[in-house]
Each structure stands twice: as C-alpha cells, then as structure tokens.
Amino acid sequence: MRGVLILGGTAEARALAAELAADPGLRVVSSLAGRVSNPRLPVGEVREGGFGGARGLADWLVKERVELVVDATHPFAERMTASGVAACAAAGVPLLVLRRPGWREGPGDAWLRVGSLQRAAELLATGGRRTTAGRTGVRGPEPVRVFLTTGRRSLPVFAPLPGVWLLARSVDPPEGPVPANVHVLLDRGPYTVEGERALIREHRLDVLVTKDSGGSMTTAKLDAARELGLPVIMVDRPPPPSGVRTTDSVAAAVAWVQG
Ligand code: NAP
After folding, report:
1. Domain count for the chain
2. Which three-class secondary structure state does DSSP give residue 145?
C-alpha cells in the first residue's frame, strides 16, 4: 500500500480524503493541527497535532513510509506549508499543494486589497470614525463598527485600535480576556446571505475585514456586503511556495495521487 499524507483542515482536504478512501492500494492519513475544539473530521485515518517543525515532519514521513504528500491546508497556513516544502525536500517525498482559488471582486463590490492584517488595522486606525451621518471616514464621535472574520488569533492586531468596535466572529473563542470594544460571535460556516445581511444590520456594521480564503462556505458575507454597500478590506493571501507543483482542483489532486 502506498502511504499518502494529506495536510488538512479544509473542505478540500476532506473532499480529497473522501475520494481516496475507497482506493485499496492507498493508506491515506489526514493530519489536523488540533487547535479547533470540535473539528470537522475527514473520512479515514486521522492524526492531530504539530509534527515539531520541518525536521519532525520529515522524520514522520520516513517512519510512516509516506510516498506522497498533499498540502491541502488553508491558504493562510503559511508555516505548515513552508514546513511541508522543506520536509518533503529533505525526505525525498513528492509534494502537491492543493489551494482553492481566491475570491474575485465583481460589479458592485467595494473592496480594498491589503497585504497583511497589520495593514488592514492601519487603515481602520487612520480611516477615522464615522459620523452620525454615515460612513464618511471623517473623524466623529462614534467608533467605526467592524465585522472582523480574520480568525480569533488576529484579534490582538485589531482590538487595541482606538475608535473601533469589533464584531469578531470565530469558530472557537479567543484566548485570554476579551476587551470591552469587542463582541465575540462564535459560529461556523456555511453562512447564508440572509443571515449575514441581518447580522450587518443588527450590529450596524460599517466595514468588513476578511482574509481572501476563497471557497464557497463563507462567501455569503461578501454578497451581503455588496447588497448593503458595505466596504470590504480584503487581506491578500501569502504567495504560494515557489518551485512546488500546485493545483486548485480536488479532482486533479486525486489524479496526481492515483497516477
Ligand atoms: P500555521 O500557522 O501555518 O501552522 C502553525 C503550526 O501548526 C505548524 O507549524 C504545525 O506545527 C501546526 N499545523 C498546522 N497545520 C497542521 C496540520 N494540518 N497538521 C499538523 N500540524 C499542523 O497554520 P494555522 O494558520 O495555525 O492553521 C492550522 C490549521 O487550521 C491548518 O490545518 C489549516 O488548514 C487550518 N485553518 C487555518 C485557517 C487560517 O486562517 N490560517 C483557517 C481555517 C483553517 P509543527 O511546526 O509543530 O508541525
């Protein structure tokens, strides 16, 4: 049996594991970081927790006789991807990176693309407070009300900003005390446009800050923002690793593993 490791944590990783599960010639192991309290589990064998960097992963690949690795982690899981590239090179194991396509701005969208979470925070800080008249960007008495969907670990980047109120939505609660200007909403996609519209209205949100994760499970917020004329600060993905075979299709990943 050929050993295959899927670095997972995404819908695409689960789809790939499901497709490969029926192949009797493969032993497929899906790996999860183990940080989400109640993760959606893929079909088949699963291991959880970090490997201990690139060296730990390389050792694991040798010990488990892994012959192929598919990195199907989230587009923002930069450290894991770098570790996968280094470990596969060290262990001589072929690697395929599976990344779903990013989102594209369409007619009616008002997106501002930025290169990092820090840049998004700077924009919020310098963009000023809204006036009671609306989203003018002119400094006024009320805080800017931000819909933040960049993950609980990004909260320290945004919470200290003066003049900002945050509706921070995440799967698990943030670690540590939650500042007074932050309202945490625990939820997990997929979301509906109706639900997102209602949320934006209920909390009188002025701007959406999100990462270009891609995929269909969380696009409803972008549709609702477009409908309601809400500006979006879109944090760009880190660049994909260079010199590595990459695909955006689960079917192509299945063919690569079975080919
Ligand atoms: P990261 O910053 O690149 O990873 C940090 C460390 O966590 C890695 O160095 C590795 O530890 C461990 N790790 C990450 N993914 C792993 C996996 N699939 N299997 C085993 N260990 C893993 O990644 P992250 O942003 O924390 O993401 C962690 C997981 O959540 C990924 O599987 C990713 O697909 C998923 N996820 C991430 C996001 C996001 O926005 N970043 C969103 C949704 C889901 P060692 O160095 O000890 O091996």
Report:
1. 2
2. strand
